[in-house]
Amino acid sequence: MTNHQSPITNHQIAEYVDLMAKLIDLPLDPEHRNGVIANMTIIAEIAQLVNEFTLPDEIEAATVFQP
Question: pTM of whole model > 0.90?
Fold first, then answer.
């Protein structure tokens, strides 16, 4: 199964940051807003790489995690 989604735009990430800050009642200093958006952009890029990775059908989920 593959997941082909359009890349998230910078505008969408900025909207997400603003909405999440409002949702959790987190005051976001305008001085830090661009930095938060930049970090979320990197997180979205990393998540896209993970989501695009196709796992073989024969892989089974581990029932117990032992580090």
Answer: no
